[in-house]
Amino acid sequence: MSSSPADQGPESEVPGGTVPEPEEAAISPVRRHGPVLALFAAAAVFAYGLDQLTKFLVSTGMTEYESIPVLPPLLHWYYIRNSGAAFSIGENYTWVFTIIMTLVSAAVLVYIRRVGSLWWGLALGFLLGGALGNLTDRLFRAPSFGMGHVVDFIQLPNFAIFNVADSAVVTAVTVIVILTLKGVAADGRKRAPGDSGAGDAGEAGK
């Protein structure tokens, strides 16, 4: 029985030429997609779960505007409810931030299917977990649906009061900026300096 060209090895002789071996670069992102999704999901669940747990403990164990020294004078718990964005920016525009966080969460869930880098998966997981953490407050806390005030409680000297979700978002953005500056694309490839994206300079993302 004769074998087909595909069965004769990576570069088997066939009439009119050879059958080249598929380039590894074309399959590498697919091979990594499972671990990337697992890390993405773990980071999102961790950030969201820790955010909601700490907010529950603060809102049930403290009164508003109460301050508790943790590592004085560096760190205090100071319970406030914030109608603005992260770090109390843009108060009185609560509904705008509710829409923005909804769009960000949806965009991350769509984009993650294209990611082949573990670091990008980690960053986007933290971004989703942080966005959903504050979005949950917007939707389900007082004074009303979609207009809820976010629980903030982490106080540092000469700095805004924030929460775990804010920290997760800032961490995600920091990692994304570093990856971008290092030329690591979301698909897991590292671009050569000055590369416009037409070619790859090797694998990255781990």
From TrEMBL:
It comes from Arthrobacter horti. GO terms for molecular function: aspartic-type endopeptidase activity. The active site is at 152, 166. Residues 9-20 have a biased composition (Low complexity). This is Lipoprotein signal peptidase. PROSITE patterns: SPASE_II. This protein specifically catalyzes the removal of signal peptides from prolipoproteins. The chain crosses the membrane at residues 93-112, 119-140, 160-181. Belongs to the peptidase A8 family.
